Amino acid sequence: MISHARALIYHSREDLRIAEVPLRPLTEGEVLVRIRVCGLCPGEIMDWYMAKKAPFTPGHELVGEVVAVGSGVTAFRGGERVVVHHHAPCGACRFCRRGDSVHCPTWRSTRLIPGGLSTYAIVPPPVVERDLLPIPDHVPDEAAAFTEPLATVVKALRRAGLREGDRVAVIGLGVMGLLHGMVALRWGAERVWGIERLPARREIAVRFGILPLSPEEAAERIREESEGWGADVVVVGPGSVEAIELGWSLAAPGGTLLLFTPTPPEARWPVDVHTLYFREIRVIPSYSAGPPEMREALALLSEGLPVESLITHRLSLEEAPQGYQAMRSYEALKVLVYPFR
Ligand SMILES: [Zn+2]
Ligand SMILES: [Zn+2]
């Protein structure tokens, strides 16, 4: 029986340590996974967000292998390669019945022990029952590691009401922005403009059929290329009022401004309600994702969505802090951590 895990502990932005963490025996309904790979999430370099959770073990984009099951678990017996979600809803409460997994109290209280950036993790019963997904044999670990981030994109574009023929603008062409562009095109968007200040990232976007624009030229070019109307769906990647303002200036009448990333708690956006009303702009936040989106994301990966070309760094657990550094300096796109490397 495995009694310890080696895990990354986040104390503060400058203080990330590797520690031996004791693992208690499994209780009813739990599963132990050996973690094969875990992606680093852009949310993990959002310092205000991390500070309120510290100290803890980050990592929620993981692929593992079931190595032990608690009593009462019948769906897994050991040896299965799985995508492990870090939260799962109860499936029965008022929020679950309305399809709002992320507001379910069970979703909010479930977590992996200790977390994804670890050699092993205990998976709680709600996740085992509702969001521990066997990976088809033809899907490699590195593609499967995109399931959770891709699920948040699936949810965001669904909430935005994306329709075939829509014109989409995506602000920010990091991994999440590129994934939004890829999925929007796959779902029939007429065109996707990608707005990004870094030329290197604009070049990468072209490979996926995204039309790159700098923030300075975005408003004028999008008007020119849309008979003056703007974008039907604007995905605001960065969690800043400045990015929301830019998105606001790009939305077509009847369009949707999708807020993908939280702003810090003190941020305020003074919105022109008069224009919002007469242009009928919908402002839609989208936070995380639940079991249906996880399944849809894994299906997209299984069909070959070309996500692996977004991987720029493959690191050991000890090197994970360098991965965060490379994300902060915009050198990295997707960073994958191999706990057993
Ligand atoms: Zn994430
Ligand atoms: Zn629920």
Automatic annotation (TrEMBL):
> Which InterPro entries does this one have?
ADH-like_C, ADH-like_N, ADH_Zn_CS, ER, GroES-like_sf, NAD(P)-bd_dom_sf, Zn_alcohol_dh
Query: Keywords, A to Z?
Result: Metal-binding, Oxidoreductase, Zinc
Q: Enoyl reductase (ER) domain: which residues?
A: 11-337
Q: Look up keyword Coiled coil and say if it applies.
A: no
Q: Which PROSITE patterns match?
A: ADH_ZINC (PS00059)
SMART domains linked: PKS_ER
Cofactors needed by this protein, per the record, are:
Zn(2+)
Is Oxidoreductase set as a keyword in this record?
A: yes
A molecular function (GO) held by this record is: zinc ion binding
Family the entry assigns: Belongs to the zinc-containing alcohol dehydrogenase family.
Q: What is this protein called?
A: L-iditol 2-dehydrogenase
- Name its species: Thermoflexus hugenholtzii JAD2
